[in-house]
Amino acid sequence: MEAVEDVKVEALTAASQFVKPLRMHYRQDKKDKIWDLVSLHDSVSVILFNTDRQVLVLVRQFRPAVYYNSVPEEGRQASGHVDTSKYPGCSGITLELCAGIVDKKVSLEEMAQLEALEECGYDVPLKNFEHVKTFRSGVGVSGDRQTMFYAEVTDKMKVTEGGGLEAEGELIEVVEMGLQEVKELMAKPEITAPVGLLFALTWFLQHKAPSNTTTTAT
To answer: What confidence tens digit (pLDDT) does each residue in 39-54 have?
Structure first.
């Protein structure tokens, strides 16, 4: 996963199915303003908790945007190339919730169910998905909406190894974390993870950690 090579960054000139750069012109309090933004798909994410082994199921993956912004200005060559011997791919590896964009005409619960299967290998009944929160991500750039769910799973629901869809370029590592590991992670001053994960772990510790969990997945 960390063997990232031949990195080159260039301006986005062709149409993208995922990102649409835009410039918004508007007037606020009688002052003309502009703001550059991108239009993205909405998304879903899932806090998966395996009740058999009392572990949270998370994912690790390489995020090009995180990698690029970990490279200092002096490391970004005029040609767009990045020297990966100086700036290895590990700096772009993030810890995240199971998640995915909403690109199908199904319910949000069904999208979350599909992501849990594709990324983590769990075939989770729809009734197990509990809505946690719907919120806005990237408010300065995209403002896209993400809906977060919580779902309890058992070992018998694990039907594949997960890892994402290779045909879509996904390369995902499934990570299991016990309660103490989660607490230690949250105590660190810096982690390479999105703010959504921090909210999710805080919510889990407050509302669903084993001492507060009275139900078992079926």
So the answer is: 999 999 999 999 999 9
pTM of the full structure: 0.91
- CA atoms of 170 and 155, how far apart (whole Å): 24
- Cα–Cα distance for residue pair 175/120, rounded to 1 Å: 9
Rounded Cα distance, 95 and 59, in Å: 6
DSSP 51-101: TTTTEEEEEEEE-HHHHHHHS-GGGS-TTSEE-TTTS-GGGGEEEE-EEEE
pLDDT digits (tens, 9 = 90+) for 142-162: 999 999 999 999 999 999 999
| DSSP letter assigned to residue 122 | B
User: Does an H or E element contain 187, and which?
Assistant: helix 179-187
In angstroms, the Cα distances linking 104 to 13, 66, 101, 117, 118 are 26, 26, 9, 15, 14
| Chain-centroid distance, C-alpha 27 | 34
